[in-house]
Structure formats: structure tokens, C-alpha cells
Specification:
Blueprint: H1 11-17, H2 19-30, E1 52-57, H3 59-76, E2 80-84, H4 85-88, E3 99-105, H5 111-121, E4 126-131, H6 137-140, E5 144-147, H7 160-179, H8 185-206, H9 209-219, E6 224-229, H10 233-248, E7 251-256, E8 273-277, H11 284-296, E9 300-306, H12 307-313, E10 319-323, H13 331-334, H14 336-350
Parallel strand pairs: 1-2, 1-3, 3-4, 4-5, 6-7, 6-8, 8-9, 9-10
The structure holds 6-O-phosphono-alpha-D-glucopyranose (G6P).
Residues 58-61, 105-107, 110, 113, 156-158, 360, 362-364 line the site of 6-O-phosphono-alpha-D-glucopyranose.
Subunit structure: Homodimer.
GO cellular component, one term: cytosol
Function: Catalyzes the first step in hexosamine metabolism, converting fructose-6P into glucosamine-6P using glutamine as a nitrogen source.
């Protein structure tokens, strides 16, 4: 069947808008029939049989792995190593037969990720993959291939595949936490309840599109944009920067907020917008002081936060986007939406080819 834009100007816009529906599909695929557990759609898995997970991917899928590292370590106390496939495959990585190796890929055909999988296959206890295309090479060569239910993604810049990868990885991390005795039944039910609300909250966030479009118009003339985040929002800062550079061709970098003073602060002046992705959490006051460091140098802060965060940030913030409240556990999934919309509307304002950005391919099947 031919995939249409369904009234949207670009596939990317359609795919951003589809996220509440595909995230609900993904949740249904992983929620156990009893409503109290996670059931993997493609077979069982025992996380007590491994002592480490190695995650390998490219591009946006690599960023999904970086978020998942926080989840697996916090929820399941499982050490996680994350690497870019093109590095992993050649650096002669040490991998034990007690490790699970997990490959994340939308297409399931990325050459470097497939080569990394083949390297690990001879050494790891199990080869897992999180893929969008079930009949792909990566899925076929895995011991267990986990679907993400995103449906066909056409836009070169990955959007709904990213959030669905995150949902599948969150479900896996919950399962691992439960099996390894770090999440009890009540906590599992509470987390599943929060996951069940996510598609609706993502839908609410789409209503911020007009506000984000106005900020995008202000960002469009910039030469450089910096994205900052802490904890699991650090990978999101990298995703925001990746999306922006891919489709608007503005130079953008994602940094850990606490690393600001070790380099990127040298770039800050009134020409450099700094996008801070920070739902309120226990480290929010540290993020506020990072923002103050930026503002003291004339930097223009775009703060993406919730209502409490906007109040706590005080004066001096250039632009604020107020997101719906969300449990910090799921914030990385929700905050992907404003990152995507900001990149999308900046690209539209600049008139670039959103769905087919120059020099990029949807799937990189050659090295
Ligand atoms: C290309 C695409 C990205 C994607 C990356 C990894 O660079 O443009 O959107 O994240 O490949 O692709 P995969 O299919 O392995 O997720």
C-alpha cells in the first residue's frame, strides 16, 4: 500500500502527529494480559541470566540506547555499555558470554549495525534487537527481535521510530527490573499505569505546536544552536541537536548541562540560542544555575520545561515552552516531541527539503 501524507505538508509532520497512536500500539504490544506485567511480543527473555548489556546502534537509534542506559541501570541495576556501531565493530570490544548484546535499528539494515551484530554473535550470550522492520536482516539474525510498532517511517529524520524505540526499551527495562528483584509488583503496576497515560500526554504536547513554531521562527536565523540536558535528558539534548542539524542545516550540538563550563560556554553570546530541555526533577536547581551562566553571558535561553520548572527558572529566560507534567521516568519520550517540532518548523521557516535533507539517506546500507 502506498503511504500518503494524509493532509500534512511533509511525511515528517505526519509521523510526528502519529505518535500518540503508535505509542499506544507499542504499549499494547508489551503490556501483559493481566495488566500487571510486561510480556514481550516475540518470546520470553530472562534478564537474571546476564550481568551486562551492550547496546549498539547508529544515529537516532544510538541516542535511544543512551536513554535506555539510564533506565536499565536505575530500574534493573544492570550495567550497560553503549556504542556507535561503526566504532564498536572495529575496536575489538570485550564481550563476555554473560552479556546480552542489543541492537537498535529502525530499518534493520544499517550496514555498521549489522556488522556489529555479527561480531557480537560469536561472543555474547544472546543477541537481541529492537527493530521497526520485522523481516529485516538485523531482526532475522537476532535470537530475539522486538518490534516497536511505529509503522512505516518515510521522513529521513527519524521521529515516531525514536519514541517507539524508547517505549519498547522502557518496557524491557521494567521487565528486567522486575525479574532482577529491583521493582516489586506494586511498583510495576504503578509504572505500567504511567506508561498507559503516555500516549494521551504526548497528544496534549502536540497542542504546543503553534508556540514551538513561533520559537522556531526566532531560531531560524541562527548559525549555531546549543542544546543542554541532564540525566536522561542529556541524550535528548543530543537528539534535539541532531534533528535540527539534519533538516535545517543549522550547526547544533547537544551537551550535558554540567559540561557547559568545560567548553561550549566559550561559544555563548547573544547570537547563540541555547535550548534547555529540563522537566523538573531533583537536579533542576543545578540546571537553573547552568541557565544563569548562559544568561550572564548574554545567551538566549529557550527553556522547555513544565509549569513548576517555568516558575522556578525565574526571570531572564528568553522563550519558555511549557510542557504537560510527566513522571521523570517517561520525560525522555515526551520531550522528543518539542525537539522534533522545533527542528521541523525551523526547517520549514528556512525552506529546506524536510523529508529528503541533502546528503542524508533513510537507511545507510553501505559502510
Ligand atoms: C540514518 C537515518 C537516521 C537513522 C540512522 C540509523 O542516518 O537518516 O534517521 O537514525 O540512519 O538507522 P537505523 O535504520 O539503523 O535506525
Amino acid at each position: 500500500t502506498r503511504i500518503e501524507k494524509a493532509g500534512h505538508k511533509h511525511f515528517m509532520a505526519k509521523e510526528i502527529a502519529e505518535q500518540p497512536v503508535v505509542l499506544a500500539d507499542a504499549f499494547k504490544a508489551y503490556r501483559g494480559a493481566d495488566g500487571k506485567s510486561i510480556t514481550l511480543p516475540s518470546g520470553e527473555l530472562d534478564f537474571t541470566a546476564c550481568d551486562r548489556i551492550t547496546m549498539v546502534a547508529c544515529g537516532t537509534a544510538f541516542i535511544a540506547c543512551q536513554v535506555a542506559k539510564y533506565w536499565f541501570e536505575q530500574l534493573a541495576q544492570l550495567p550497560v555499555e553503549v556504542d556507535i556501531a561503526s566504532e564498536y565493530r572495529y575496536r575489538k570490544p570485550v564481550i563476555s558470554d554473560k552479556s546480552y548484546a542489543l541492537f537498535v535499528s529502525q530499518s534493520g539494515e544499517t550496514a555498521d549495525t549489522l556488522a556489529a551484530l555479527r561480531y557480537a554473535k560469536e561472543r555474547a550470550a544472546k543477541i537481541l534487537s529492537v527493530v521497526n522492520v520485522p523481516e529485516s536482516s538485523i531482526a532475522r539474525e537476532s535470537d530475539l527481535a522486538l518490534p516497536i510498532m511505529a509503522g512505516v517511517e518515510v521522513g529521513v529524520a527519524s521521529t515516531k521510530a525514536f519514541t517507539c524505540q524508547l517505549l519498547a526499551l522502557a518496557a524491557l527495562a521494567l521487565k528486567a527490573g522486575h525479574q532482577r528483584g529491583h521493582l516489586d509488583d506494586a511498583e510495576m503496576v504503578a509504572r505500567l499505569q504511567k506508561l498507559s497515560l503516555l500516549p494521551g500526554i504526548v497528544n496534549q504536547s502536540l497542542a504546543l505546536e503553534g508556540a514551538i513554531e513561533r520559537v522556531a521562527q526566532l531560531i531560524a536565523p541562527a548559525q549555531d544552536v546549543l542544546f543542554l540536558g541532564r540525566g536522561p535528558m542529556y541524550p535528548l539534548a543530543m537528539e534535539g541537536a541532531l534533528k535540527l542539524k539534519e533538516i535545517s542545516y543549522i550547526h547544533a550540538e547537544g551537551y550535558a548541562s554540567g559540561e557547559l563550563k568545560h567548553g561550549p560556554i566559550a561559544l555563548i553570546d547573544k547570537e547563540v540560542p541555547v535550548v534547555v530541555m529540563a522537566p523538573t526533577d531533583e537536579l533542576f536547581d543545578k540546571t537553573v544555575s547552568n541557565m544563569q551562566e548562559v544568561m550572564a553571558r548574554g545567551g538566549k535561553v529557550v527553556l522547555i520545561t513544565d509549569a513548576a520548572g517555568a516558575a522556578e527558572a525565574g526571570d531572564g529566560v528568553w522563550q519558555t515552552i511549557i510542557m504537560p507534567d510527566i513522571d521523570p521516568f517517561l520525560a525522555p519520550i515526551l520531550y522528543a516531541v518539542p525537539a522534533q517540532l522545533l527542528a521541523y518548523h525551523t526547517a520549514v521557516a528556512k525552506g529546506t527539503d524536510v523529508d529528503q535533507p541533502r546528503n542524508l539517506a533513510k537507511s545507510v546500507t553501505v559502510e
